[in-house]
Fold these 2 entries.
Entry 1:
Amino acid sequence: MEKKKVLIVDDSPFSQRIIKDALKGSAFEVCAAADTGTLAIEEFRKQRPDLVTMDMTLPDMDGLDCCNELKKIDPDVNIVVLSAMRDQKLIARGTMIGVKEFLQKPVKREELLSAMEKVLHQEGEGLCLVDREWLGYFDAAFRKNIKDMAGLESTISVQTDVGTKFISHGLAIIVGLTGTTQGRVIVDMATDVAERFASKMLGGDAASEDDQMNSVAEFANIIAGHGVSRINNINSQNDMDMRLTPPSILLGENLSIINPKLSSCTITAETSVGLIHMNVGFVRGR
Amino acid sequence: MDARYVNPFIDAITHIMPQLGFQNVVRGGVKTGDQFVESKGVTILVGLTDDARGNVAYNMTEEAAMKIASIMMMGMPVTQMDEMAQSAISELTNMVTGNAATNFESLDMKVDISPPSLVVGQKFRAKLSNGKFLIIEMVVDGIVLELNVGID
């Protein structure tokens, strides 16, 4: 996954350091830092970053004037204003220039990352950057547990930006995600696949319909649990507290599972018992 | 499951529906269901966590869903379950469940809810919890809306 380049414009070395630290381990990387407006413009021309964080008080010019200059170079520049001041007048002026986000210092890591991805997200549809990073945790849990719980080898394919609708293949388990970020995980397979998959999980015994539902529900619960734990651990200093709702089980032909506010990805595992699908989605604009 | 869990949902429907343009909210019967909710055509699932763990399934016919969406959009005709209607129904269940979660505080319970999943299809079943669930029938402006509450 390619990281998004960020130019930090701030005359305080301390602030620069805080922002750099906040971006560590995220989907963003710092390509340059500038402590004056002039240097910011120079670095912007050179680096062409995907996003700029902008302080309001620079030694040689007003932060908003600097935004204006960047706008002349690239009308689509993505700017997050990060300043000790955050008043209506500033926001009104900034918005006129085209600044999309205003944050007040001191800013929390999660707040900053969320504002940054929001600004980038406004460009287009689909999963945002943080979501893509998170998807990787669920993907890892999915692969690991197909092997650990059913002893199956799998070949994985990923279909990104499935959108708001998922079509079930017969048996679907929905696990809701609650907390600071909301979403849901669906594990889905055809009923004949569920029968063989559950049998593998049960050590080769024949699987009744109840066994199938219970086994696949537990499988879904464990994958979702692993993914969420990983997110909570990595973001432990930011009070990230995602939780799972108990699995609900759907049985039927050609069901559409829809959430108009969700963007999602589907990961499909090809195994010797058939195709197993996992759809992971998060609510936009958190 | 505990019958006390019914009231937060009934209160939520009674409180929220008039705000969305519905005139008349009548509480129908409450009974218990076993194992599966048989979908009437449109089912919306919302998960509950923290002090009450389980799922709620809002169950209605497609016709009822379209009528409800129409009233929520101030009488705009709705003739199919299009994106706008899906969004309206999802929002309705989100508001009602959110309000019910707040009502649980009076039972000294903290409850968090997941985003709704709207399920559309012919003849399908949903399992909400390990055991029995409660079926609450509400009639809003003559439209039947069934709530299935399964809390473990």
Note: Chain A has a mean pLDDT of 88.
Entry 2:
Amino acid sequence: MAMRLHKHKTFKTGGIHPHDNKLSAQVAITPLPLPKMVTIPIIQHIGAPAKIVVNRGDMVKTGQIIATHEGFVSSNIHASVSGRVGVIEEVMDSTGFKHMAITIRVKGDDWEETIDRSDTLIEEIKLTPKEIVSRIMEAGVVGMGGAAFPSHVKLSVPEGKHVDHLLINGVECEPYLTADHRVMLEKPKEIIVGIKILMKALGVQKTIIGIEYNKADAIEIFQQLLKNEKHIGVEALEVQYPQGGEKQLIQALLNREVPSGGLPADVGVIVHNVGTTFAVYEAVQKNKPLLERVVTVTGKSVKQPSNFLVRIGTPVIDLLIAAGGVPEDTGKIVSGGPMMGKAIADLDVPVAKGTSGILLIPKDEASRSETYNCVHCGKCIEACPMGLEPYRLLIMSKKGNSQRAKEEHILDCIECGSCSFVCPSNRPILDYIRLGKTQLKKQKSV
Amino acid sequence: MSADLLTVSPSPHIHTDLTVPQIMRGVIIAMIPALLFSVYNFGLGAVYVTLLAILFCVVIEYAIARYLLKRPASIYDGSAIITGMLLAFNVPTNLPWHIILIGSAVAIGIGKMSFGGLGNNPFNPALVGRVFLLLSFPVEMTSWPKAGATWSLDAVTSATPLGILKDGLRAGDTVPELMNQMPSYTDFFFGLQGGSLGEMSAFAILLGLIYMLYRKIITWHIPVSMLATILLMTGIFWLIDPTRFANPVFHLLTGGIMLGAVFMATDYVTSPFTHRGMIIFGVGIGVLTVVIRLFGSYPEGVSFAILIMNAFVPLINSYAKQPRYGSKSQRHKAYQEKLEKEVKATP
């Protein structure tokens, strides 16, 4: 590694350095050919499932609403292709659970007339802050970094809270993933307009884009484009996982800490992912709902690691075929990054709004190795970005002592997996922490 | 793709390269320079004692796991080899085989397996074995072969620098007089002195330390805090009365301080979890070592100091916690107050 003269900012507590393996960083985004059929789950976001408003046999256009949000923390779902609505039934999605989904058999590529599909950059923001939020809600925009939190909710700052900073998350700290990186390289002007839209909606004067220094090209592009912008800055960050976590990014860029159980707005901050910011641009300036996204397809034995522009609902198998087929030695397929992504059981699982990548892991790396007793090395404590004591939480969860685990702040765990990653004894620390959290939730609901 | 099913397991899906057997291998590699210096110094006795201790420890652990506890043999993680090596490092190279056997049995049987094996023992097993031998076989355990004397198994015995110092001071000599009977500081540093198998060469042990720091097997916290405390405390006493107290460099380079700081006190299982805890632990060992050395009846105190601090580890763990994210409520509060003021100021 070359010596760098100054250290970049980063978060202070914990963190790890997995090899980043960004195999597809130099591969431009290419649109994936239209699939034959899409399967669109009606829950692709945190919150209540959307309500289905189409029936089997209906003809739908690309961009048409097929399920409307139920309640505030929920999100609209749009047809990502044009064609005939097929079965509406429960299917297995990337979470590993069955959820209701609408299938559409593709016929032609017929878009809603109101959507501007041209590439022209529209800079002037005509809508009022209120209109912006409702447009984003209508367009079904959710956080595209993985958590899929409805974006309009984040833009509705609770009363009594004052927000002074918008942070744009261009960190992409997950090894292997390059979707955000490519969007930053290929759509920087649109992202900047997206930022201005968000700033107007929030009424904030200051924005910082945080990007890890391993994406020097993206940092340079934004520095060039933002030379004359007083209110939007770019900050190169140290490469450290999980810097893309909202709380870690806030600590890295502003040295503020979100209180336990609190929200970023409690310390005057709202964080949006760069991919989301691009989706906001498209929703507000182009009237285009969130119906496609960039997905990285990658892995050590993948023939052509790629970044595809994919319609929501496309089965994973289509992406794999386009990337050169499924390698013989594939042992595990992960939706998302290797640290926080979910292993999927079959190849028909559809791409959802929160799907940032498909990672193929070879057989010899797919299963976990032998475990040993805890040797008290303390590496899990050193790695935990929340300053927790993961080995302790494991013991408490294992014993079913969830109250004690709660006192040890088990609910602060962001499930980044750093503890399990570093454990030299291969102990399933995060598995047990998840179990402990579930035990607590069950107790609450009883 | 073949008909095999895909693996489905919870995240994370990647894992660091550093696993328990690798860590153990790293520690063993780090101990090799000290072993080689010992061979150079004491001849074949060093090899004989080390191999015997390793063999006994591994066989005893295997036997206890398989036939007493009736569970799979736990020897493949490599920790029994380390215990054997550390026990050997802590004894003279002319120790008879039956005493090595007893030491190994106590270290593995009482020190480790009686608590449930790797990870469960509160005290460093090698030190448990060593201190047991020291109390049971005081003569054999303190008959040190002379450095560089012979390549045969029968060695000429000599006193260690610390022994000379302790006995001399008791007899009424002053430190400067006693220093004239000692090897030079260069000899101390490279290990040309009498003592236990692996403890003489500060240089060789430092090589091991550098290797373990480089491989990220241990952090600097325990060795540095322990050595700094010893340096500081012996320095203060030396300044008070240089005729009664030896200088700090002499203390650092003699006896088991370097060995203890690098290989014994840093044992994961019996040291605290957090960096803050490690510093408290290191300072504690340093203070106890100096107190025992300067005022106790034993010339050497590292083993006792480490074992005593081992007992405090659970207490240190529950006190020295990691600073939690979001727990710096003061920073948060200050920010909130500033905000409130701003909101009030704006009409």
Note: The first strand of chain A starts at residue 29 and ends at 31.
